[in-house]
Specification:
195 residues; five-stranded parallel sheet; Rossmann fold; single chain; 2 domains; alpha/beta
């Protein structure tokens, strides 16, 4: 029997160079919007929802790249979007958003509906420039959240300083690509040695 495995391809998007549509203006919309703004605060975002919460309205006052449109979703709302998130607790609306996105060949995520998604939003641990995303293949966001807490606690805040120093060292190395790889491997070996 072949064991089920996670076949997702991990990617970090430069979301600030893309246009994002979030359909949903309630709790789920706020959750997805907050995650995007925390990771890529200058992303061009349109939020379309019949009703947009005061919480979202207050948050976006500090983000001029976010546009709020209070109206029911229509398939034309996807025009101009590179990525779509259906952030509603309504299977009919989610299905409508996914269908429209698929027809227009736009990547779509439907919150809490893994079977409808082209991609998932993982739990993220960030220490300065280090960013680790965790995926459970849509099986358990709770496990991903717990792993995020563990990693956040065990990864030292000084990792960003290490990364900055490694970039300086890497930029100063001489030789061809393989020489540089060997030198960096020698320099970083102590990071993984068991003591």
């Amino acid at each position: 029997m072949m064991q089920d495995t996670n076949r997702l391809f991990p990617v970090f998007l430069k979301l600030e160079k893309l246009s994002l549509l979030i359909v949903g203006g309630g709790y789920v919309g706020m959750e997805k919007l907050s995650a995007v703004l925390k990771n890529a605060p200058d992303t061009n975002i349109r939020i379309v929802a019949t009703v947009i919460s005061d919480e979202i309205k207050d948050l976006v006052k500090e983000y001029p790249s976010v546009t709020l449109i209070e109206k029911p979703f229509e398939s034309d709302d996807i025009d101009g979007a590179d990525v779509v998130i259906a952030a509603v607790n309504d299977i009919a609306v989610s299905s409508s958003v996914v269908k429209a996105a698929n027809e227009k060949k736009v990547l779509v995520n439907a919150a809490d509906k893994p079977d409808l998604c082209d991609f998932y939003l993982g739990s993220v641990v960030q220490k300065g420039n280090l960013k680790v995303a965790i995926s459970t293949n849509g099986k358990s966001p709770t496990v991903a959240k717990r792993l995020k807490e563990v990693l956040n606690d065990c990864l030292p805040d000084e990792l960003d300083e290490l990364l900055q120093n490694m970039q300086i060292i890497r930029n100063s190395l001489k030789g061809d690509f393989q020489d540089k790889v060997n030198q960096l491997n020698d320099l970083t070996k102590s990071l993984v040695e068991k003591k």
